[in-house]
Amino acid sequence: MNNLDYEDYLETLNKISRAITSDLYLEDILKLIVTLTANVIKAKVCNVWLIDEKKQEFNIKATQSMHQEYLNKKTIKLNEGIVGLVAREKKPKIIFDVLEEEQYKEKKLARKEGLVSMASIPMMVKDKVMGVLNVYTNKPYEFTVAEISLLSTIANQAAVAIEKTELIVKTKIIQEELDTRKKTERAKGILMEERNINESEAFSLIRKSSMDKRISMKEIAEAIILSYEIRQIK
After folding, report:
1. How many Cβ atoms sit within 10 Å of the Cβ of residue 36?
2. Taking a C-beta distance cutoff of 8 angstroms, is the pair 20, 160 a contact?
3. Which residues, 6+ apart, have CB-to-CB distance to 217 below 8 Å?
């Protein structure tokens, strides 16, 4: 790797690091990652597949310069193709010619798009695979050790961004659940006091109102609390 390449690689990693610590949405971060990766590797195509654990499949979440026919197939099963293999084995898979690779399933598209060599890299946080980063060239190419190392670093940075987003979502869900529980408890207390009923009966009233009105129990609880506070002012 010459000095110019080295500087390009460092700049790419710096840009990705800044994006991960920014307030950008995950979709924007992944789009930036595939664009920067394709540019620095001089690749024809770069894309990111993420694991959906509930559905047990991969979803394509970001891509650069890819035919619409490919984008239409946005999911693949966890045990399918090169992506599935890389995720299972937790190590990069380098293919000199995808048309000669038995496990590569998109040969028709590869011919159409002129895809030849491929580097498929697991996106990992600690020992957990979050997805797979794929890079394709339009001519036979031997990926260097330095390039594979760079791609692995980029893939793992992307995995960190995904984990960060998942943690934020989980935190928001937990906070929402705690807020709902807190307000429901207060609403139950109001009903118990005003209607002289027990806790179970108060909870049943809130739940029934939620089902009848087709709104959340939190919204019912908030309405009960608001009504109570207005009456207290009067």
Report:
1. 20
2. yes
3. 180, 184, 206, 207, 210
Residue 165 CA to residue 28 CA, distance in Å, equals 12
Pick among 3.10.580.10, 1.10.10.10, 3.30.460.10, 1.10.730.10: CATH of 174-233: 1.10.10.10
pLDDT at 25: 72
Q: Are 72 and 106 in contact (CB under 8 A)?
A: no
Give yes or no for residue 50 having a pLDDT over 80: yes
Q: In what order do the strands lie in the sheet with 93-95?
A: 75-77, 57-64, 45-52, 128-136, 118-125, 93-95
CATH class of 3-170: alpha beta
Does the structure show a pLDDT above 60 at 3? no
Average pLDDT, the chain: 84
- pLDDT tens figures, 96-142: 999 999 889 888 888 888 899 999 999 998 888 989 999 999 999 99
> Burial letters for 64-92: b for 16+ Cβ neighbours within 10 Å, e otherwise?
bebeeebeeeeebebeebbbbbbbeeeeb
pLDDT greater than 60 at residue 23: no
For the chain, how big is the Rg over CA atoms in Å? 25
Angle formed at CA 211 by CA 209 and CA 216, multiple of 5 degrees:
85
